[in-house]
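Appendix B: a complete holo record

For completeness, this appendix reproduces one full record from the ligand-bound portion of the collection. The bound molecule is pyridoxal-5'-phosphate. The inputs are the chain sequence and the ligand SMILES; the output is the full three-dimensional arrangement of the complex, encoded as structure tokens. No fields have been trimmed.
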Amino acid sequence: MTMGQTLSNSSSSGAPELTPGVLDVDPVLAIGQEPVDADADLKDLLRWASDLQQEQPMVLGYPEALDFRDHDLAPLLDVLVNNVGDPGSRDASGVSAKAHELAVIQFMAAMAGTTVDEVYGYITTGGLEGIERGPELARERLPHAAVYASDQAHYGVRKAARRLGMRVVSVPSRPDGSMDPDELRLRIAVRDYVPLGTRGARRQTPPRRHPAGDLRHYLPRRLRRRGDPASSCSAGGEVHVHVDAAMGGVIAAHAPSELSWSIADGADSLSMSGHKVIGAPVPCGVFLARRDLVGGGEVGAEYVGATDRTWGCSRSGLAVLLLWRRLRAWGHQGLRQRVQSCLDTAAYAAETLATVPQAAVDRVPNTVKSSRQRDGCGV
Ligand SMILES: Cc1ncc(COP(=O)(O)O)c(C=O)c1O
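The structure of the chain with pyridoxal-5'-phosphate bound, as generated:
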């Protein structure tokens, strides 16, 4: 709850709400003209790290693994490891960990039911970078396409679409959290019939008094009929499916129930976080996309002679090595055991919380939400 966030009153649903707090520069930490005592700063930093570590056993509920110990790799902090450009592109810098990156991508591609012959991939700064790169690829192929995202999508989807200049259409979800396919068909059909884009004076937008959920008013009768998904879907034409698998991808890949989530299931691109289920001391992620969508790759980073189809330029080789080390120590088998242990823990938490009087418990496989009314307040 530190780092600029405060817990405020409960919402009407009983769940506590977070409101952003404001951080000012701490004068003790300010960087001025004169050098300061570096030994004292080191002590402070180490104390800060030790305090965080001591808190770890009490941390419940933030979706990031904390069970890594990488301090034996401290010498890596004394070298620059910079993966400029595509992992599969040799570069002249000589300071990259691209060989390790390729091994991680190969592993992740297999996890997503495919191979590196079929998909291009690289290690990102986090899940959101892939949420931008996927729709960017979609926009190249489908320049006027809108982003259809579940109303439960992470806020980063809107942020990414805004940066890409793409319109977002929010699609209601079903009680189990999945996107409602009927609502999706409806919105695709409405978009075709009522050009919500920019078609000048003839543009026909629904009057404001109708909330988005009432778009049925604007459909021709033939599309209003339920059970006519084919005509509704064909209104959408070609699509690009990006899967935001930030946390769920690793779980879905190894959970006993078979879930459709991956490239093998028809996704064109997907993004995952590395610091969530896998765990790493630095935020990182993985992006994968069908190879035929990313093209051959022209030389981008000329000064190192590399092709570059990544989002940025310099990329963290440290993050690559940390992920590689962890995945190599586990292999697919170890990761499967880890996911099973997450699911067992979530089941145990749900069962135990359900014994608390007046507690409402809601569990999707690896996430448990519980709230309890006490003295009129949600807890
Ligand atoms: C569903 C979902 N998508 C995207 C993100 C963003 O991922 P990252 O923090 O790795 O950028 C998160 C983070 O919590 C998430 O839960």
